[in-house]
Amino acid sequence: MQITRKLTGALVLIVALAWAPLAQAADRATLRQFLEVTGFDVAITSMQQGAMAGPGIAGTAPGDFGNQYTQLAERVFDPDLMLERAIEIMAAGMPDSLVDYGIDFYGSDLGQRLVVAENESHLTPDEKRYAEGEALLGTMVADNPGRVEDYRLMMEAIGGVESSVRAMVEIQVRYLISAIGAGMVDIDYSEAELRALIEEQVPEMRRDMEIYSMLGTAYAYRDFSDDDVRAYREALETPEMRQIYELLNAIQFEVMAERYEVL
């Protein structure tokens, strides 16, 4: 895992350098403001819940080991620690121009309404979110296909599906490696072998994630007008916002990889 983590960290640095070869990174106070205004702080801290869900995502019954793993994951994926680490990485390479751009958009009236809706959606139980999203999307496909297309383009712009698939693969690999090491599952694979097996499932994971992402998106923005959704889609498609999300996705994965190394 050490090699994987170093490669991931190098990727974050490469992405930062590619987007901002001569830019100066923002100060820590501004970066913390950026996280809060954009709602990315919730995305970072929610990784704790993802790690704690390892037994369920891997398809194993909790049992004593699963319960112990969940408790350990809760401690290792400490929200405050992860936020501080995200700020450290951002301070090393996220340019002022992108920080200011993100704060300007998400600090606007539309931006703040979007963040509130996204955070509320993030904390809503999956069953409720997906059921209501499915009902909304079913009607929308027939009555408002343009909005459905806006949703699809929004997800494409931020790379949300690919980021979620990478996270799901990592959660399964790390949990199963721990379970193998503890003798709790009757398989004997190396990490590389296990990762290769799970990677074979990625196309199916991606299809499922695309569906659930659309359902979640329909739920999150259910109270927004078509004009608001279109304006958000256009904002996400700007070069600056694409750069922001590419960096944030890389930073989020780096923080997750580091925590799994400790776990």
Q: How would you explain this protein's 3D organization?
A:
This protein has helices at 2-19, 28-38, 40-45, 47-52, 54-57, 63-76, 79-93, 96-106, 109-122, 126-143, 145-158, 160-181, 191-199, 202-220, 226-236, 239-262. The chain is mainly alpha-helical and 263 residues long. It has one domain. Helix 11 (145-158) packs parallel to helix 15. It starts with a helix and ends with a helix.
Per-chain topology:
Layout: H1 2-19, H2 28-38, H3 40-45, H4 47-52, H5 54-57, H6 63-76, H7 79-93, H8 96-106, H9 109-122, H10 126-143, H11 145-158, H12 160-181, H13 191-199, H14 202-220, H15 226-236, H16 239-262
Helix pairs in contact: 1-16, 2-8, 7-16, 8-16, 10-14, 11-14, 11-15, 12-13, 12-14, 12-16
Q: What is the mean predicted local confidence, pLDDT?
A: 84
* Structural class by secondary-structure content: mainly alpha
β-strand number:
0
Kindly report how far apart the N and C termini lie. Answer: 11 Å
Q: Give helix % range.
A: over 70%
Percent range for β-strand residues: under 5%
What ranges have pLDDT less than 50 throughout 5 or more consecutive residues? 1-23
Describe the main β-sheet briefly: none
Spatial extent as radius of gyration:
19 Å
Total of DSSP H or I helical runs spanning 4+ residues: 16
Secondary-structure element string: HHHHHHHHHHHHHHHH
Question: What overall geometry do the principal axes of the alpha carbons give?
Answer: globular
Number of folding domains?
A: 1
